[in-house]
Amino acid sequence: MEENSEIIVALDTNSPDEAVALVERLMPDITMYKVGMELFYSCGAGIIDRLAALGAKIFLDLKLHDIPVTVGRAMAALARPGVDILDVHASGGSRMMKEGLAAVRGAAQARGVRPPKVIAVTLLTSIDREVFSREIAPGCDCNLVEHVVRMARLAKESGLDGVVTSAFEVSAIREACGRDFITVVPGVRPAWAADAHDQRRCMTPRQAVLAGADYLVVGRPITRARSPRDAAARLLDEVREARRDARG
Ligand code: C5P
């Protein structure tokens, strides 16, 4: 894939009307939106249809993790028009990922829609080095970055399209998995954002693009801005300039 960093705006609200109003304000400058657990579990699948009717592409961020057959059936139900990206936890293992992917492709074909990309969460970015070695992998001699890269490789070997990851691990993942393996990166804060909120390890959009990120997930710097449209336009300018510089 070419350097093609796009911004995905996170619709972190439990109100479908608020989500729709925000998308109406940001379209067509921003075309991709993240629907996470809060919005999806508050409103159900109808929110996907409402957003899709506005022309929005959706990253449905439900981070599935269960036995392979259950994940497969759930993913088949989620592969509906408008959904462009779905995700699962890589720690569910290769069988789970393969079964999820096959189910998505089968369901999309049956519905006559383009199959969504399926990506994997390598390790939640809320897990830092200390928690990783104390709680997740005690006794393991690998470090956190090695673990993230191993999970990314497993996702790639299982046929997945990419990973959700911190910007700090993007270059190691690209080196291990190649340029076509997409990286979706949250924890992005423009230098002009007044507040990092609860994000700890942030990069600016420019830094994330130069590190090789394909998609940047940005929530509050846009959604809580006085003018979400102006904030989105400023971010897009920054991303376009960084993309030009990355191409040299
Ligand atoms: O408002 P903010 O830009 O911090 O929103 C980032 C979005 O990305 C939120 O929906 C958050 O749940 C999500 N996310 C994250 N870190 C991850 C995975 C997802 O911030 N590792």
Kindly describe this structure:
The chain has about 250 residues and is an alpha/beta fold. It has a single domain (about 5-245), classed as TIM Barrel, CATH 3.20.20.70. About 45% of the residues lie in helices and about 15% in strands. The chain is built from eleven helices and eight strands. It has helices spanning about 15-25, 35-45, 45-55, 70-80, 95-110, 130-135, 145-155, 170-175, 205-210, 220-225, 230-245, and strands at about 5-10, 30-35, 55-65, 85-90, 115-120, 160-165, 180-185, 215-220. An eight-stranded parallel β-barrel has the order 1-2-3-4-5-6-7-8, surrounded by eight helices. The radius of gyration is 17 Å and the shape is globular. The relative contact order is 0.15. Cytidine-5'-monophosphate (C5P) binds near residues 10, 164, 187, 218 and 219.
What's the gist of this structure?
The protein has 248 residues and is an alpha/beta fold. Helices cover 47% and strands 17% of the residues.
